[in-house]
């Protein structure tokens, strides 16, 4: 794994962030039953917001008749289309935001006063913003436009596009910031900074806001919901109180306000738009947050296009080689191994690699730079058995293969079915990479808490460089697809030929 050890990650990932039993103080939460709107759970700050006790009452007693009617009308339809309902309370205008959880209607009340409003001016610019996003030609451009427009909309001091790698470490790949701030562009952060349960939540919930990381959590009353016997599920609540570990992290970073919007590629969390404010608390209005989420959703839809994925380079070549190899296999009377290793186009030409091993009907052939023949079969079988046939860091899967890093730091192996343990395997050598972390990720400390020892965030986020060894240039998705396609073709062909041989023999 990455810099933070598995155990520590697991303990961080154990924190039940969906049920903190508290909200942030920039609004109040009231959960009610339907259809009578009777109050079941309320945050301790609700009475102050409504100017009267809320326990034992119902929402129609807290709202005027007109707002109650609008609320009831909204409940009949799609709640996402109702949010926010602008209502008037004694203390002023409030954005009322609705969703359902634990069989209750959860209502969240956020005062309009005190929020930053980009408002109508920005909304008029939305069409041109979308035009700019969709007209970008590369992922770099797309994420740059995204960072710039989100900052223009929300007024944060710094807006970053943060991309996860295969091990959930992340990298800042685009940034727009106040000029006097030091750049974070290009810095990496270890997977443990955003633990698994947080990533799982962010894969379904697009937006979270911490207007003031120095806040004091406001408890829910009662702490345990009578109907479920558990604390209220706040995974869909905009006011959800966040992890104290994360608040410590933000304080260590000097961040006063943080907001993040998910970037989701075909259902999988791809990255985040991460926003910081340093000068003081910062709260973009609910409407502006919805607009930001809309930009995040739009960018997410553009991610899988070949242009954004940066996949157009080399894609045609690989497809072309694959077709040529398929033709060679179809036409040759020779063995499949010969067809793949002796023709004008060989398996080594299929995709960029330094060497290839072909093993069909137990017959092994090597081309280019590969590990020695007696090491190739155990290496590939070890990777297959470990469930990591495609890797750019072989020694992390099989430490005993570390001495092969000069030829096989990266292996892309595919099985050819037929019961003879046949395979194709491409090899890439070690390429030393210098990477720069936002703070030395190996210095996280363990803190004692009520729930036992837990990793606490590192204190320094100063750039810290490390040379990564025993890794190869990563395999790209279309390369893996081409290798799998070729293996499937060989599987079919080998089966046909075996059948033919049988018929000839009888
Ligand atoms: C959450 N960590 C987060 C979030 C971000 C980061 C963006 C989402 C919440 C938010 O929007 O603020 C991390 N923020 C970053 C990174 C950058 C940034 C990498 O700006 C880079 C520039 N964090 C730790 C450790 C633990 C931990 C050791 O450092 C665990 C013990 C936990 N991070 C943690 C948790 C959450 C989190 C639990 C979820 C917070 C929540 O939603 O309740």
UniProtKB/TrEMBL annotation:
<keyword id="KW-0675">Receptor</keyword>
<dbReference type="GO" id="GO:0009881">
    <property type="term" value="F:photoreceptor activity"/>
</dbReference>
<protein>
    <submittedName>
        <fullName>PAS domain-containing protein</fullName>
    </submittedName>
</protein>
<feature type="region of interest" description="Disordered">
    <location>
        <begin position="438"/>
        <end position="458"/>
    </location>
</feature>
<keyword id="KW-0716">Sensory transduction</keyword>
<dbReference type="GO" id="GO:0016791">
    <property type="term" value="F:phosphatase activity"/>
</dbReference>
<keyword id="KW-0157">Chromophore</keyword>
<keyword id="KW-0378">Hydrolase</keyword>
<dbReference type="GO" id="GO:0006355">
    <property type="term" value="P:regulation of DNA-templated transcription"/>
</dbReference>
<dbReference type="GO" id="GO:0009584">
    <property type="term" value="P:detection of visible light"/>
</dbReference>
<keyword id="KW-0600">Photoreceptor protein</keyword>
<feature type="domain" description="Phytochrome chromophore attachment site">
    <location>
        <begin position="138"/>
        <end position="297"/>
    </location>
</feature>
């Amino acid at each position: 794994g990455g810099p933070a050890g598995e155990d520590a990650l697991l303990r961080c990932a154990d924190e039940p962030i969906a049920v903190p039993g508290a909200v942030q103080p920039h609004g109040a939460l009231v959960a009610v039953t339907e259809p009578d709107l009777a109050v079941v759970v309320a945050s301790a700050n609700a009475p102050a917001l409504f100017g009267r006790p809320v326990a034992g009452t119902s929402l129609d007693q807290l709202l005027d008749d007109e707002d109650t009617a609008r609320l009831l009308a909204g409940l009949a339809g799609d709640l996402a289309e109702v949010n926010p309902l602008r209502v008037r309370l004694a203390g002023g205008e409030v954005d009322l935001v609705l969703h359902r959880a634990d069989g209750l209607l959860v209502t969240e009340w956020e005062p309009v006063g005190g929020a930053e409003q980009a408002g109508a001016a920005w909304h008029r610019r939305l069409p041109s913003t979308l035009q700019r996003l969709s007209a970008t030609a590369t992922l770099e451009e797309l994420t740059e436009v995204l960072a710039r427009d989100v900052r223009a909309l929300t007024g944060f001091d710094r807006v970053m596009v943060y991309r996860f790698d295969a091990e959930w470490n992340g990298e800042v790949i685009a940034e727009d910031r106040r000029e006097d701030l030091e750049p974070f562009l290009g810095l990496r952060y270890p997977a443990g900074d955003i633990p698994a349960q947080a990533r799982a939540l962010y894969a379904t919930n697009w937006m979270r806001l911490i207007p003031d990381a120095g806040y004091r959590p406001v408890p829910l009353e009662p702490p345990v919901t009578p109907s479920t016997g558990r604390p209220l599920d706040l995974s869909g609540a905009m006011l959800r109180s966040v992890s104290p570990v994360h608040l410590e992290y933000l304080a260590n970073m000097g961040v006063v306000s943080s907001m993040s919007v998910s970037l989701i590629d075909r259902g999988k969390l791809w990255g985040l738009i991460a926003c910081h404010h340093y000068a003081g608390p910062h709260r973009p209005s609910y409407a502006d947050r919805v607009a930001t989420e809309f930009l995040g959703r739009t960018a997410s839809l553009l991610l899988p296009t070949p242009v954004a994925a940066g996949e157009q380079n080399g894609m045609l070549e690989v497809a072309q080689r694959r077709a040529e190899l398929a033709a060679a296999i179809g036409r040759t009377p020779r063995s499949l191994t010969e067809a793949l290793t002796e023709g004008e186009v060989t398996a080594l030409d299929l995709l960029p690699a330094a060497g290839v091993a072909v093993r069909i009907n137990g017959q092994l052939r090597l081309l280019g730079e590969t590990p020695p023949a007696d090491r190739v079969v155990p290496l590939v079988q070890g990777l297959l058995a470990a469930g990591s046939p495609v890797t750019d860091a072989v020694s992390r899967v099989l430490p005993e293969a570390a001495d092969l890093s000069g030829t096989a730091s990266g292996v892309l192996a595919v099985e050819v079915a037929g019961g003879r343990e046949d395979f194709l395997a491409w090899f890439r050598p070690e390429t030393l990479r210098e990477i720069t972390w936002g703070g030395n990720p190996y210095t996280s400390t363990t803190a004692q808490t009520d729930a036992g020892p837990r990793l606490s965030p590192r204190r320094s986020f100063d750039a810290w460089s490390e040379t990564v060894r025993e890794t190869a240039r990563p395999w790209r998705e279309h390369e893996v697809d081409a290798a799998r396609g070729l293996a499937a073709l060989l599987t079919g062909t080998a089966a046909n030929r075996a059948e033919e041989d049988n018929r000839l023999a009888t």
